[in-house]
Amino acid sequence: MSSPTPEDPSTTSTPIRVLLVDDDALVRAGLRIILRGAADIEVLAADPADGAAGAQTVATERPDVVLMDIRMPVMDGIEATKRILAQPDPPQVIVLTTFDSDDLIVQALRAGASGFLLKDTPPERLVDAVRAVAAGDPILSPSVTRQLVDRVTAGPDRDRQAARDKLTVLTDREREVAALIGEGLSNADIARQLYMSVPTVKAHVSRVLTKLAADNRVQVAILVHESSRSD
């Protein structure tokens, strides 16, 4: 029997172990209900309500994915993400946000988060996001990506030509991939749109990040957006 692929996570024998870190008990309860509806996802019983407790729980429970709130008492999600990702063999971290602070989202991504989602993300997309990051495919909410990029590049002092010059280091195919990253698409979505395999997309994304000296996909999205701005 052939081995299951990341694109067919429901056939995976080992469930994806997820830790919820949020100071709102109702949010944690809602996320727990949503994720427990997926047969291939196991929500850990631990219930940390702040970043410090979340980082400590990760060290003992070793989850595969952490859903992390940004604003929390004791330690916020940004510092908690840094501490979690500094641990040996760390899990993937998805930042949950109500989009009340662009700067905090950018800081979380710079800290190494695999992506971010709105707290009101539809249940099926939330489940897909957990599966995606567990398979090594960073996820960004397309609507949030567009809003974030629009706000970050809104200043009049942005250099459109400098952004275009940076993109010249990319091949035509890499430019296509970068443009779709700019739309907030996942690797699987890009693969479908460009009729490529997911591993091929991942290879292109890796080269795009390296050539553009970008730390994450949002930085690529900002650069693509800036290069396409009109006068």
CATH topology label of the largest domain: Rossmann fold
Broad CATH class of the largest domain: Alpha Beta
CATH architecture of the largest domain: 3-Layer(aba) Sandwich
Which whole number gives the mean pLDDT?
A: 83
Number of helices: 11
Helix/strand-derived category reads: alpha/beta
Q: Radius of gyration over alpha carbons? A: 18 Å
Silhouette? globular
Indicate how many domains the architecture comprises: 2
What distance lies between the first and last C-alpha atoms, to the nearest angstrom?
57 Å
The H-and-E topology, N to C, reads as EHEHEHEHEHEHHHHHH
Q: Report on the biggest sheet.
A: 6 strands, parallel
Description:
40% of the residues are buried. The protein is built from eleven helices and six strands. The N terminus is likely disordered. It has two domains: 127 residues, Rossmann fold (3-Layer(aba) Sandwich); 80 residues, Response regulator (Rossmann fold). It has 231 residues and is an alpha/beta fold.
